[in-house]
Amino acid sequence: MVKEERKITQRDIKEIGLNLIEISDYNVRTERQKENLEELKTSIERIGLIHPIILVPGKQGKYDLLAGQRRFLAFAQLKQKTIPAVIINDLDSLSKKILSFTENIHRRDLPYSDTIRICDELFNSYKGNEKQRIEKISKDIGVSPSTVAKYLAYRLVPKNVQMMVENGKISASAAYKITTAFWPNAAKIVKIAKYASDVPNTTWSRALDVGRKKPDASADEIIKESSKSPQELQFSVSFTPNTYEVLKQKADERSKLEKKEVTIKELILQIIDEYLSSGK
Amino acid sequence: MKQKCPFCEKETADLLKHVSIYHNIKNIEEFDDKVKDTNEKKEKIKKFKEYTDSLMIQFRNNKISGEELRELRKKWEVENKLKW
Predict the structure, then answer these.
(1) Is B31 part of the contact surface with chain A (CB cutoff 8 Å)?
(2) Are A161 and A183 in contact (CB under 8 A)?
(3) pTM of the entire structure?
(4) Of all residues in chain A, what percent carry a pLDDT higher than 90?
(5) Do B28 and A186 touch (CB under 8 A)?
(6) Distance between CA atoms of residues A100 and A119, nearest Å
(7) Is A66 within 8 Å of A96 (Cβ atoms)?
């Protein structure tokens, strides 16, 4: 792990030639973040670089970039000759990846698939039972164990859908909900995810409900049914006290069976659904 | 709604999280392959049990000796590649 535990001071920051810096294999950003550098460049021109980049000694007198790829690219585009950097020595390869990851995750701009990748790599590298490994990853990268568990579960989202999250077409949680709902049918998951990227949340959420009620329905059938707007009908019904008590009792029984709360209103809707599905 | 894990039969509220962490499944293909292997193994164990039950009946009826029973069981395991 990282051996240098003392604070980084101004003395540790050096100006390093851009021509001596190479983007490290340990840098967890797998995409060159060339887009949208304009804002960063403007900020650098106005106020300089607030956070130095982090380097580790590389081969033939050069340095490997561990963290700060966007800052490095911005400096290169601004045709700067040197860049402020902190050089860290004595790290093993796993520690370099952890350091690169923690540097990026706290900027909250780490691409989704890189986050999944680093958690996967660390989970496979560490020893111990599952809980111990998750706790170790949590301590090393500075996120909660439940977040680590979440990223490990995100590995199961099909790659096409992960790309959609990367490209901002759907959220990570939507991708996960859809994957869970239609698991393990990859084709269905991808189709519903593409649908979800084009419609409002309330519409694709209906697709999850339809999928639950009709697990054998095809993706097209699910999409067609969920695209229909729900029909609202409002009326009030008066029950005798006895009937009300019976309905309440039935709702409680269903709640126990389904392991979630079922209200009297939901019970009545279920009864109507079941009656209509029975074909009587 | 709880679901049963197809590998360890544990009931879980989040099947994906469970299989990804406790069975280190990383994608749908791995999941499908492991489900197939698990089902094949269960089927093999079921057939082995049926076979050993029939051998026990023969043993009790003095049709085969104890040693023959053990050898026949072992032979079945080897021929059917049953790994515990």
Answers:
(1) yes
(2) no
(3) 0.63
(4) 29
(5) yes
(6) 13
(7) yes
